[in-house]
Each structure stands twice: as structure tokens, then as C-alpha cells.
Amino acid sequence: MAFIERKNPVVLNIKLTSKGRELLSEGELDFKYYAIGDSEIDYEFNKKIIANPNVSEYTTSNSSILRAADKNADLISFIPKNLSGDPYSELTNVPSTVYSVENQVESLGFFTDNNTKFITDSNHVKQPDAYIDMETVSGSPHTTLYKNELTYGTSGEEPAVGDILFVQFSPTTNTTGSTFTLNKDYPQPNLFYKITAVGTGTLASGSVNISVDRNLPDFRNILNPDVHARAMIYYNEISFSGDTILSISPTDYLDESVLNFLENSQCPTIVFPYWNMSIIFTEEIAGVLAGNLKYTQFKSRTFGGFISYIQNQAPTLKKLGVIHYTNSSPANVYGEGFLQDTPTVDIPTIMWHKSPTKTLGITLSPIGGQQLLADLNLYYYELADSEEFVVGKMFPDLKIFVIEDQELLFAMSYKSNRSWTLPDYTANTGAINSEYTTSGNTVFISYILIPAQPTGQTYSQAIHCNYVKKINLGQVDPYIQEVSLNFPNIDYFKFLTSEPFIMGSDGTGYTASKIHALVQIVSNTSFDTFDDVTPDSTQWKQLDITPQVTGYTATTSFLLTPANLTSVVFKISLLQYAVFSSYDLSYLDYPGDTEEDKLIFGDVTYFFGNVATDIKAEVYTTDIDINLSLNEFNSSTNLTWDGIETVYISEIGIYDNNTPKNLVAIGKLNDPVAKDSRIARTIVFALDF
To answer: Which of 80, 115, 182, 474 could covalently link to 434 via disulfide, CB atoms 3.0 to 4.6 Å apart?
Structure first.
């Protein structure tokens, strides 16, 4: 008894030919016919190999087929369906399927070892081996950078005007050493400055004098001469040195060369080692005066449209941060998107007030199910911390993270002068005001903590709290009203310390000796709705409300405690609003409107953290099954075939309905497969899109 040998399906991936790509670009690609070939089979030569007594277990199936990566030649010999010799068989069904592929991407960013160790190679840092003698930091914008003798040699680069200086401050603990690490259990400020001048000396020779964009802390009286703050120098704009030097501007979301085939053909495939961040402003920051540089001059201004776009062209948030993977390389590191809720975003240097413990850093991840921005037909996940406090959104298909929490944005901004977030609060007038009317008024409220007063033991002034409250005052005279401000959660002040920064203290967190309320009353006359009412950045006022703290003493040694701030309801009487002090950002040495070379809030370039995620891609395939029955496809037009022996399939071509037919796709097998009247085969071939 004889048995029919039914082989498992041969699965073959095919690709478009140059003609196929041309027709696809013109919208005229179609699949009408297929042809089976054996162009690379030399039957006579294989007979000689088989006949060699010194060669064992060799068949034509052992032949190797060279497959061109791009262009393939046409088929020159065919295995026709029947003896009529017509090589083309009609495709009766061309189905399409879709499936997902998944992979994992290693964590990319500025940290390693569970985000506790800085990466200090030349692809991340310009010069990692410097430090500042804390006792010489005197509250001015001038300081001396010293060479870290323990590690110097990673780079010979010197600081230059425009570079970004990163300093890991600790008033009482030496942060230098053979490795640059973060102790999460020892939360301390990590601040960025822009170098504005380079004076005498060189780092290579031991020390160099520099100036930065604003005042440094004043630690002359910490009484510990051996405290050194580790410092690193970063390029102001993103650069990467691999097989080549590539650089881009700070806010480019996508480099057009990535989409340009002609440029891609000469563009090296490089995995950039970190992510980038653009903080986009579409409103003025409180305290910016008429003569200051405006948000319309920020480098991030070109992305102002994104804030409107991502909020369905009805933005309620006027400041957003976008964490994005920007580069000039065609390397498709993150596929077509993030896999569901797998991404994590680590920001190791931030003191996050909602952290459950007094530890440095915040980890963000998606929570809940996918949600839809209906007008954009765009899915997102809410982005939240470990306690599920939502700070923004993660868009898996756009492959971006959007930071919406206004305080977190400021803690991540170089110019804010703080790497800690300030707590939210409640504010109200205690009155039930009528519905909004253009003849009424609105009051805006925030606050600012003033650093400790003792000379030589304090950080310099940092930006105000960016959680700004808005209260409808109705038509009642605003100047007879009173605003109550209250901090309901003492734990949110966990990083506020009441110990002066002197020898013997642990040196963690930040200090404050005063709290000022920031206030602005705005007439509704020019605004149609309550949502439209906005403050004028030049008209903010401040009032010292520290005397309302229980136990307050007007001495230079007084320091606020978490209990001080949360055990009182601060009262802000608007009766004296006219004599409140004006508020501005002069303490940050905020630049004038012609000083665009100075550090500003829109200058953030790097995302100073790490991103890890699984990725996905949706693969759309045209899957075609060809059944080769026993009595079909058993002969060949190959000039070396003897008319008797088994034929071997090495290739399949797909043709259109043109006259003459165009070869629009082709697939070649690694190893030929046999076909004769004893063998029925099924060939499955797929074309990916």
C-alpha cells in the first residue's frame, strides 16, 4: 500500500519589489497572479554532487538560495501548474490579518543600578568629575569648580558659557567619591544652573572660576570645612557621540530626516541613551514683569499648539511637560507604541511631597484602564505615582508622557531653584458668592516659602508654589472680603526640616523661615466666563502671613515646621490689598526681554530620569495560501531539468493584472522544497505592512 506524503505548510515571507513599491506609491498595487519558480536550481550540477561517492546524504534540498535584501531579479524558470506551460496561476483570495508583536526595551536615561547611580560616560555627561567646596558657597552667582582627584580622567572637557551645571548639594555631608550615587534615604536638593561666565583657571589644572545664572546657596557658616558637593557639567543641547556626532535642538519632537528615505539611507542607526523633555508654556509665570523675557520667547514656544491639541483645542492647563524620545536616528527603538500599561518613568532626584516616605525620587506608571480622547480618537492612561496620585497622562501610541501636575513641572524646571514640590492647600472666602458676572471680581491665591534667614546656612530663594487657586468673589466689594488658606496634610511637608544646616544636622530636605501669600484681584470686566479670567503676571502682590503661625518669633533663628504650617488657618484680609508688597522674580535673576541667552523656564532639554517599557507593533499581513495538489506543479521550464526528476521550489513571485504582468512581490526560500506527484504541499506566504 502506498501513502501520500502531505508535507507541513511552507511559510514564506515575501516583500515588494521596486516596481511593487512604485505602484503602491501611486495607489495602483494589486495582487492578481502567482508563479512558482526554481530559477536558482541547477539540476545537472546537483546530480554530479549526488553522484560523487565521497558526498553522502546530499539532495537538491541542501542547495542554498541567496536572497537579496532589497532588489531581487525576476523569475527566469517556472514550475507551471500543468503541462500547458502557463506559469501564472490566478489568486482567488487575498485575505488580510492583523497581529501584535511585543518586546521589552531596556531602561534608558541618566541612571543605572535601580536608578541610584548616575551614568557618567561621555554620551551622557560633558564633564562628570568636579565638585564645589560648600564652605565657599556664599550666596552669590560666583563659585569655583574643583577637579575631583578620585575620578578625574573620564573626560578632559572644560566648562564653557552656556553649559548646564548640575550640583548635588548637601550642607553637611560630602557627596564626592569614586562613584556618583543617589542615596534615596538621604533626600537632598539636586539643582541645575546655566554657566554664564568662565574665569581664571582650568579644571584640568585643579580649579576654575565660574559664574552661573542666579545666586547659589549661602553655606559659609556650616562650620564643616570638609564638605564637598559633587558637580557635573552637561551640554546645553542634546548631543550624542557614537559612530557619528548627532545633535538636535532642545524641543524637536521628531526630526524630519527620520521620515526621509534618502537621508535614512545614509543615517546611522543609533540607540540614543536618554529621553528628552520640553516644558511648554502658553501663559506668563506669576511675577514676570513688563521688562522681563516673556513665555513667547521661550525655546518651547514652537510647541504651544500641542497644549491646545492634546486638550481637544479647549485647554484648561496652560503649562505642560512632554517627555519624548527625540533623536535623528532611524532606529525604531520603541516600535509602534508602548505596550498597554507597562511603562515606568523614574525621576530619582525629585523630593515629591506626596511620597509615602521621606525618600528621594518618584516613580510614575499608568493606572486604570485605557481612556479615550474622543475628538482625537486617541487612547491614554492616567499617569500616577505609587500612591495613585495622578500627575498626567501616558499616550501609548504617541509614545510620550505628558506631565500635567503644575508643581511637579516646576520642580523639574532648571530655573525654579528647587528640586522639591510644595504641597497643595485649600483656599476660600467662606462666603457663598453669586453666579459669575462680568461686573464682579475674581481673586487668585498662591504662596511662597522664604528660606531660612541665618547668613551662611541656607539655600537661595526658590520659585513660588504653582498650585494657583481661583475664587469667584461675585459682586461684593472684594476689599471687605477675607481669604482663608489652609494646609490639611502635615505629611506633605515631610521634606521641610526645622534643623539649621550646620555641622551635626543631617542636611536633608529644605528649610523656610517665612511664608508669604501671593494674591491678585482681577476685575471680570474683560472676561466673558469665569474660565476665561486670567491673572496679570505683573500685578501679583505678596503678604507676609508668618506672624499668624503659633510660636512665631521674629528672630533670625526661627524656622518653620510642618506643624507650624498645618495647625493654623491663615487669614488674608483684602482690606489692605492696595499696600501689599509687589511680587516679581528678581530673586531668580530673571532675564530681561532682550536676554534670550540667559536661563529661562522653557530651556529644559533633558529628561533627567529613566524610562522603561515593553513595546508593541501592529503587523498587518496579506496572507495567501497556495495548495499544490498531487498532479500539479510537477514540471519545470528550467533548462537543466531532465523532464523526469523531482522539481524543487526555490521562489514564488506575485504579479499584477497589467499587460505585460509586473512582478510586484517576491519571496525566496532558504532551502528548496521538493514537489512531485507523490507530494501535496501548501505554501503560505505573507507580506507585512
So the answer is: 474
